Amino acid sequence: MSTINLTDPDDDRLASYRDLPQSHSSRRADRFIVEGRLLVERLARSALSIESVLVDRSRLSLLPAELIQHAALPIYVLPDESICRLVGFDFHRGVLACARRPSPSDSYEVRAFGPGNWLGLVVDRVDNPENLGALLRSAAAFGVDEVLLGRGTVDPWSRRVVRVSMGAVFTLRMRDGVDLETELVALTQGGVQVAAMVADDEGTPLPCLPCAARRAVVVGQERSGIAECLLTLCHDRVTIPMQSNVDSLNVAAAAAIALYSVTAARRG
How much is the pTM? Predict the structure, then answer.
């Protein structure tokens, strides 16, 4: 661990942390920011590359052991009020980290279906960071083997998505910005049964969905749902039965229910 005490929030070494609400993460960026001790600790336990850490001087002793073991990792130390001025909002979580966004070659290997179960989550144009973060958290919770994020979906490495996912994004096998039509065809050719989640009374009720060893669940944008060109490639259109005075669930809640149902059915 290399501790560097700083007093000036305008120091060039802190450029990655400057004005975070204004420096929106984009897929062209090669770095991303993680906020809070718990998420920084989970980041340190992952295989991702951390470039630096920024910590409030009063909380330096609380840094997780995983960071201390990084001998060459620069840890910048600032007073709390200077951190707030640097990041551009009242930040009170004590620690941030800057890490390198994995390249597609780092985060994805050629898909190989083994003899056992396989579960995928396909995300079509979900543009709300909280929804995507919750989707990724559910994907990790229910053992999703692969997440496919179509074009038009919010950046999975944005601060808010990372925070809401509770760090699930660090370890999920995930592909971002893919052509979902091509991917669904490839899944079908691999023997995957593809189920589209719809808010439609004519859809198959989720409890009636046949159990399948290889299953992909497709979810879409809350306003317009799943694109029709993708729906035509799905084997099933599935709906969650609910009270008549409620027409639909939040996409993240619906996905969590669907993923639980699929995994529970396999357990019998």
Answer: 0.92
